[in-house]
Design brief:
Layout (H helix, E strand, L loop, with lengths): L2 H5 L14 H11 L4 E4 L4 E3 H17 L7 E5 L4 H13 L2 E4 L6 H11 L3 E4 L12 E4 L24 E6 L9 E5 H4 L2 H7 L7
Parallel strand pairs: 3-4, 3-5, 5-6
Antiparallel strand pairs: 1-2, 7-8
Length: 203
């Protein structure tokens, strides 16, 4: 799943034309409109404050697992609030988001993990068996119990504007799939965020 599919689950508030990065935009909304709904699904809703805190806790968790700047963290999740938390948390940890569509065959997922150099995988309990042994794999359950006890204090060193935000693979229709790297400034400015949607969406 590409990042825009996940981000369209997040409501976009009117924002001034600044060069805020995506995670900075969410953090700002957590301060300005903490109780406004950021993500809504059939089972759960998250406010901006809850979304930002969950992402920060995940960032602390990933740091503890050894995720270093621009280390690739694969995410194999369907469209859900966990997917958005995962993306934001990876950004805050300074890692690089490597999205993997759960609908892909196991062979393709294994290729992406190996070729992409993933150091960890975030998925759900039903998909952990699809990840090759030896790779750090963590299940983000619906209630995010994995993050219980983690700090929600802002990390001391957040990603720079030229940090790689994500690595997305081509279809491979003309050969082997190739990873395309996108940096934060290129893809996650506040202008893109504001243009992503004009009203709240549901996951």
């Amino acid at each position: 799943m590409t990042p825009d599919a996940a981000l369209c689950c997040v409501s976009s508030e009117k924002m001034e034309s600044t060069a805020r990065l995506f995670h900075e935009s969410v953090a700002a909304l957590a301060q300005e409109r903490p109780d406004a709904i950021a993500i809504a699904s059939e089972k759960q809703t998250l406010t901006y404050r809850e979304l930002d805190r969950a992402a920060t806790r995940l960032a602390h968790f990933l740091r503890k697992q050894g995720v270093t700047p621009e280390a690739r963290v694969a995410v194999c999740l369907g469209q859900s609030h966990e997917l958005v938390v995962a993306f934001l948390g990876i950004l805050k940890s300074r890692g690089t988001y490597l999205p993997m569509d759960p609908a892909l065959p196991d062979k393709r997922l294994r290729f992406m993990l190996e070729d992409g150099g993933a150091v960890a995988v975030l998925t759900d309990a039903s998909s952990t068996h699809r990840i090759p042994p030896g790779l750090s794999t963590f299940a983000l359950e619906p209630d995010l119990k994995l993050l219980t006890g983690e700090s929600d204090q802002t990390l001391q060193c957040e990603p720079g504007r030229d940090s790689v935000a994500y690595a997305i693979y081509t279809s491979g229709s003309t050969g082997l799939p190739k990873a395309v790297l996108m940096d934060l400034v290129c893809e996650w400015s506040a202008e893109w965020w504001a243009a992503a949607s004009s009203k709240p969406r549901t996951a």
